[in-house]
Specification:
Blueprint: H1 6-11, H2 15-36, H3 44-55, H4 64-80, H5 90-93, H6 95-98
C-alpha cells in the first residue's frame, strides 16, 4: 500500500497516479527479469509458475477495485479486533477521493 500525506496530495494530486504507474512499470520489469535469471534459488521459476497458477499472473494487484475484497477483510478485522468503533465500509475509507 502506498500512502501520501494529505498536504502532499493536496498540492500535487497527480502525484498519486504517477507513483502508481511508476511502481506498476517497475514491478512488471522485475517480474519479467525473474524469469531471465533465477538468482534467488534454483526453484524460483517453479515457485513463480505455481503462484501464478494459484493466484493468477496479476497477483500483485494495484488499485481500489482490484483490492476491494482485501481492504474489506481488513475493515472487518479492524472492527472484530476492536480497533474501530464500528464496521467501516471500503467506500467510506476513500469517499473523499471517489467523489470524482
Amino acid at each position: 500500500m502506498l500512502l501520501l500525506r494529505r498536504a502532499v496530495w493536496e498540492k500535487r494530486p497527480a502525484l498519486g497516479p504517477m507513483l502508481v504507474d511508476l511502481f506498476q512499470r517497475c514491478e512488471a520489469t522485475f517480474h519479467a527479469s525473474q524469469r531471465l535469471y533465477p538468482y534467488h534459488a534454483p526453484w524460483l521459476l517453479a515457485e513463480i509458475e505455481e503462484t501464478e497458477r494459484l493466484m493468477g499472473a496479476g497477483y500483485h494487484a494495484h488499485g481500489l477495485e482490484k483490492n476491494r475484497h482485501a481492504i474489506d477483510v481488513f475493515c472487518q478485522s479492524a472492527f472484530d479486533d476492536g480497533l474501530t468503533e464500528r464496521r467501516v465500509r471500503v467506500d467510506e475509507m476513500f469517499a473523499e477521493f471517489l467523489k470524482g
